[in-house]
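Quarterly update, task 2.4: protoporphyrin IX containing FE-bound model.
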Amino acid sequence: MTTATLYERLGGERGIAALVEDIVETHMQNPRIQARFLPYREDPAHLEEVKGHLRDFLSSGSGGPQEYRGRSMPEAHRGMNINEAEYMAAVDDILDVLDRHGIDPQTRLEVLGIAYSLKGEIMYV
Ligand code: HEM
């Protein structure tokens, strides 16, 4: 039984910042979803804003002190018509990156649980 919060087990502010960089880069290299993300390379300011929101989302959702000021999940993904295969591809990327960063299996499972709980707010909204 561990007493560290999910935020701490993800490496806190620095760990989460590194995770977000790699997750976005991995999405951009994943043929199943890269078309959704590659256009952001042409708009670095917007990309930085989204990365900031992703960091705050992960931090506040895992027990960290940061406040999430981005849009709600349905608002952020509305009109993208994200399907199940794309959703699974994104979740696979996240779990791969957590693994590459040495995050333990129990913690990865917790993140998977949170990702699944958000599915209905992100797919086909
Ligand atoms: C575990 C599932 C997911 C989570 C937790 C998640 C979370 C987020 C968050 C927090 C933002 C920032 C919102 C903002 O800036 O206001 C965002 C933006 C975005 N997400 Fe997701 N997302 C997920 C799945 C997906 C999937 C499957 C796709 C497409 C394949 C996707 C595509 C995007 C795009 C393109 C943006 C940028 C929107 C913009 O232009 O500002 N997301 N996501």
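Highlight for this quarter: The helical segments are 6-9, 12-29, 34-37, 44-61, 73-77, 84-100, 105-117, 119-122.
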